[in-house]
Each structure stands twice: as structure tokens, then as C-alpha cells.
Design brief:
Blueprint (H helix, E strand, L loop, with lengths): L12 E8 L6 H7 L4 E9 L3 H7 L9 E8 L6 H8 L3 E6 L9 E4 L4 E7 H7 L4 E2 L7 E7 L10 H13 L3 E9 L8 H6 L6 E4 L1 E13 L21 H12 L22 E16 L1 H17 L7 E7 L20 E7 L4 E8 L7
Antiparallel strand pairs: 1-15, 2-12, 2-13, 3-9, 3-10, 4-5, 4-9, 5-6, 6-8, 7-8, 11-12, 13-14, 14-15
Length: about 375
């Protein structure tokens, strides 16, 4: 029998903070816009009818957006025409697909114009470009960054010609990519991308949508002034803790019935934290695909406005965002590894007072800054 003591619990982190949407530092915008590769986003809105939610958010739905999938050689991202049209004019997002981050080569193009290669040792040594050792896989994985916006990165310059030779002539790597692009006005239109990559069978896809209504759902009573991620164990408390609320929100996304649990239940003994109330109708919307930070920011602003003007007056709205598990970066250029779970996600609970809670969940192989 295996010794279970040898299997250590993964060192995951859950960071919590309370802030205001009116704060001059605009921390909520940084949280959203610096998390580039978003696979899924959801809204949970208690006390509202599904028809009301669909009507109000109709112009902000991620299902309106498209993204592309195509098998591309790496050198297409360093061609002069591509850089001038998509890198210098707008925000281009690309991520290698069906690649296992900890064991295979992975590639990303950041909207900042960085072509980022996460390579195993053998590929790195064969490629011949200078990089740095991975923080999490020392001497086994290397990170190469190429600044496509650099003034010295254009045809004729030594750096450009070296990179071009390595990627096109020496080692012609190709991957299946998922990618999208927004112009300088943050408008998403993939027709130009499809036209540019027409030789590579570029296939468009829409983000999938799942909107459902939950009837007579029990929801925790929370206080927006909560400042700590702690559970409250006093039966006489006036509001549920931020930790218990976050766990309850996870149960909603897992479709766990937690209105009334039983200690003898085979499936789940989890119950809604106390104190709680019954919401006659609660709407859960979720979109999955490739969702830009700008679309998520639009959802947050629409949620903020909905809380102010909705006659149904929901007590809060939860915005949940899941990043791709095998992305080489989480926020900005912070290195991300899969290890046990690949978590890189965040949740914002927005209140009518413009106060918000932010939960940031990170896996064991993540740089948090």
C-alpha cells in the first residue's frame, strides 16, 4: 500500500481584498485587463428574472464575439505585415491549444506585443534563442520572450534576422492556436484575421452560452463591509463570512443542491452558510471559449449599472472568470505552471454601493505580484 503521507497537499492560494469601483487607482480595471487569456466567464444575479437579465445585458454578451482556431507556424507572428497590421494597431491575443504546459512546448502572443515561448530543454537548446530558466522547472524548462514592438525588431536588423532564421529556417515549429484581435477602439472583428491567415484554414467560432434560472434558491446574507477572508462560526451573526460565501458560489457553479443538506447525504453535506434568505429567482449566465479582457470589463460596468437602475434591486452580482489552465502566463508576464490543477481565476462580487470583493485563486505554480 502506498504511504499517503508522501503525497503533500498542493499549495494553492486564495487572495481576498475589499475595494471600491470609485477608487482612483482603478485596481479592478488592472485586475481584469492584465489577465489576458480567459477561457470562461459567468454572472450570478439573485432576485432577478431571466428575461430582465437577457434584455439588459443583450449588448454586452460574450456570445456576440468570435475567435479563430488555426494551425500556424511560429514565423507568421514575426512577419512585417502581421506586426504592422495586428500588433502595432490594436490588441492581438494568441495561445497554443492542446499543449500540456508542464511537459510540452507552449506559445502565447500577449496584447503587449510579446511573443512568449515556454520550451522544454531539448527544444530550447535546438532553437538557439536566448531565454531564462523557468521559475518552477529549473533547468528543465526555459522561457523565451520576443518583443515584436521593439524599435530594433524589423527586417534588416541583426535581432530580427536571427529570430527569423531560428523560427523559419532552422526549426520550423508550428502549433494549433486559438486567437482573436481587437482594433485600436477595442472593437472585435475577426474578418481581417481570417483574411490574413486564409492560407492556413482559419476557422471561426463563437463563445458558447449557457443561461439558466434557479428557482427558490437559498443565498447567504452578506455585508459589503467585510474585510477578511474568514469563516464565522457564531450562530448569532448578522451576515455570512467571505470565505463561506465563496465556497457557496463554487457550489452554484458545480450545480450542487445546498439549500438543505444532510450529514448522511451520499453526494454532499454542504449547506448554504447562515444567515441566508430565499431568492425567488436567481440567474446564472456562463460563456465559454476565448473571451477578451475588454469584454469582461464591459460586463463589469454593465453589472454596476444594472445594480443602480434595476427595479428588482439585487443585493449583489458575482462576476467569475476562469483562465486557461495551460497558459504560460497568468497576470501580465507572471509565469504560470499547471502542476496539479493549473488554476488562475478571479471572482468579483459587486455591491450597489460600488464596493466590491475580489477573490484571486492561484495554483501551486503561479507567480503572484
Amino acid at each position: 500500500m502506498a504511504d499517503v503521507k508522501q503525497f503533500k497537499t498542493p499549495k494553492r492560494r486564495l487572495v481576498f481584498e475589499k475595494n471600491s469601483l470609485e477608487d482612483t487607482k482603478q485596481r479592478h480595471k488592472k485586475q481584469i485587463t492584465e489577465h489576458y487569456f480567459n477561457h470562461s466567464v459567468s454572472l450570478v444575479i439573485p432576485g432577478c428574472a431571466i428575461g430582465t437579465v437577457k434584455h439588459y445585458f443583450r449588448e454586452h454578451l460574450p456570445s456576440l464575439d468570435e475567435f479563430c482556431v488555426a494551425v500556424l507556424p511560429l514565423h507568421v507572428f514575426i512577419e512585417k505585415e502581421f506586426i504592422e497590421k495586428f500588433i502595432r494597431q490594436g490588441n492581438f491575443y494568441a495561445l497554443s491549444r492542446k499543449t500540456k504546459l508542464d511537459t510540452e512546448n507552449c506559445v502565447a502572443v500577449l496584447p503587449t506585443g510579446i511573443l512568449l515561448l515556454s520550451l522544454d530543454k531539448d527544444t530550447y537548446e535546438e532553437l538557439g534563442l536566448v531565454g531564462k530558466q523557468s521559475i518552477f522547472q529549473n533547468k528543465l524548462r526555459f522561457i523565451v520572450e520576443i518583443d515584436l514592438k521593439s524599435p530594433s525588431f524589423h527586417p534588416g536588423k541583426n535581432l530580427y534576422e536571427r529570430v527569423r532564421w531560428c523560427l523559419k529556417e532552422h526549426l520550423d515549429l508550428e502549433f494549433e492556436f486559438v486567437f482573436t484581435w481587437t482594433d485600436t477602439d477595442n472593437k472585435l472583428d475577426i474578418k481581417d484575421i481570417q483574411s490574413h491567415f486564409r492560407l492556413y484554414k482559419c476557422c471561426p467560432f463563437k463563445n458558447k452560452e449557457d443561461i439558466r434560472s434557479l428557482s427558490n434558491a437559498r443565498i447567504p446574507v452578506v455585508n459589503s463591509q467585510e474585510t477578511q477572508l474568514t469563516d464565522k462560526d457564531n450562530d448569532n451573526i448578522s451576515c455570512a463570512g467571505a470565505s463561506g460565501f465563496y465556497e457557496w458560489l463554487g457550489s452554484i457553479h458545480c450545480d450542487i443542491e445546498c439549500s438543505s443538506g444532510s450529514p448522511d447525504s451520499y453526494v454532499s453535506t454542504f449547506t448554504c452558510p447562515n444567515p441566508s434568505t430565499v431568492s425567488k429567482e436567481m440567474v446564472k449566465c456562463q460563456w465559454t471559449g476565448f473571451i477578451t479582457p475588454q469584454r469582461i470589463l464591459n460586463l463589469l460596468e454593465a453589472s454596476r449599472s444594472f445594480l443602480q437602475c434595476s427595479p428588482e434591486k439585487p443585493p449583489w452580482i458575482a462576476l467569475n472568470v476562469w483562465g486557461f489552465a495551460d497558459t504560460p502566463v497568468s497576470w501580465l508576464k507572471n509565469e504560470h505552471g499547471f502542476h496539479y490543477e493549473g488554476d488562475n481565476m478571479y471572482t468579483m462580487i459587486i455591491f450597489p454601493s460600488d464596493i466590491y470583493w475580489c477573490y484571486m485563486a492561484l495554483g501551486s505554480n503561479d507567480v503572484c505580484s
